Every structure is written in structure tokens, then in C-alpha cells.
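Late entry, evening session. Most of the bench is empty. Finally got around to the prediction I had been postponing all week. Sequence below, unchanged from the version circulated by S.P.
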Amino acid sequence: MNAQDLKYPLIKKISLLKLAENILMLIALMCFSLSLFLPIFFTSAEDINGFWVLITGWMGLIILQLAWFANPLNLLALLMANKRPRVAFLLSLLAFALASNSFIFFEIPTGINYEKVYIQEFGIGFYFWITSHILVLFGLFFGFINSLKKN
């Protein structure tokens, strides 16, 4: 031990990569949380907020719209981040690919007489949501790089 370690015994040393990972995860959480309360889609019928998409998005499987499944996949990646950083990064990459599927999504089935509501444009909540996935991806990339340095 040197004199510096004795002077600040409670301060834990943290790498810049780990710090960047933690900051990106915090910002990602804030972006995801904001997306729940903001409009995701502006449609021909009404504006659709993020919380509604979070609740009902799993039904997109019926029409092969898989973007919603990026949410649980990224959650799984975050849960695996400390023990399996490579797998977590790959899961997050797959989650981002699934989330990107929403850019080719232009209509929402209503379930009433096979009618559809057309998406006119994406709302600010959508961009917060996609940004949260990008930030998680970069954060897990930093975590993966940091795990390589330890070996």
C-alpha cells in the first residue's frame, strides 16, 4: 500500500470504461423512462404513447413486427452484463437489430374488421426509445472491452 491508498481508503478505483458503461446505462434508463410518457407514433386516428406500446407491443408477433421484443432481450442482456459480457453485448446487438425493425413498420392493425391505422410519423418518444437501445449497446460494448482487459 502506498500513502495515496491510506489517504482515501473508501474510494474504490474504477476504470474509465466501467465509468462510461455506468453513465451510458443511466442515460439509457432515463431515455427509456421518458419514452413511456411521450408519443411514439402519430397515426391517422390518434397519438400512441410509449406505455401503450410497451403493454401491447408483444402482439406484433402476429404480424411479424418484432421490434417490441428488443425490450426483454435488452433486459436479459443487462442481467447478464457482469457475468457474461460477451453474450450480453451480442444480445444487445440482436436487440438493436430487432428495434430497427420498427423503421419499416407503417401500419397498426386494430383488430376491428381487419382495419388498420396508418402511422404518419414517429414521435419523440420513439427516438428516446431507440436511443436507449443504442446507449445500452454502447455501454455493453464498453463492458465487453473492459472484461477483455481483465483477462
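Two things to note before I forget:
The chain has one domain: 16-150.
The mean pLDDT is 87.
Will write this up properly tomorrow.
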